[in-house]
Design brief:
By secondary structure, the chain is mainly β. Helix content is 0%, strand content 52%.
């Protein structure tokens, strides 16, 4: 059982930056891919970025490429999402999730992720 807990959300003006953090506590033996997903008001949850346990593989949604960067610290069982040049359309609840996976795999499908955090709100004002 892995329990992801997100932090770092908040209110920011368009063009600003935020850094989300996620601490994955619990049984963290084995290898896990970690990912960030989001659900905007009135929309379904979608993938934002994912990273493999080895950090070799990453995936980014087209809408955030060049603006967001995902990273992880395996020693601390943490994953981060650096969000730059934020836009109002980035407003959403952001979720951290963990997927048991081979070290070099960074799945983008939500169905691969077994453990989910409660989410943190990110609001970008225009």
């Amino acid at each position: 059982q892995v329990l992801p807990v997100e932090s770092g959300g908040g209110l920011v003006q368009a063009g600003g930056s935020l850094r989300l953090s996620c601490a994955a506590s619990g049984r963290t033996t084995g290898t896990y891919a970690l990912g960030w997903f989001r659900r905007a008001p009135g929309k379904e949850r979608e993938v934002v970025a994912t990273i493999s346990h080895s950090r070799v593989a990453t995936f980014y949604a087209d809408s955030v490429k060049g603006r967001f960067a995902i990273s992880r610290d395996n020693a601390k069982n943490m994953v981060f999402l650096q969000m730059n040049s934020l836009k109002p359309e980035d407003t959403a609840v952001y979720f951290c999730a963990a997927a048991p996976a081979l070290p070099g795999w960074a799945p983008s499908s939500q169905s691969a992720y077994t453990y989910w955090g409660q989410g943190t709100q990110v609001t970008v004002s225009s």
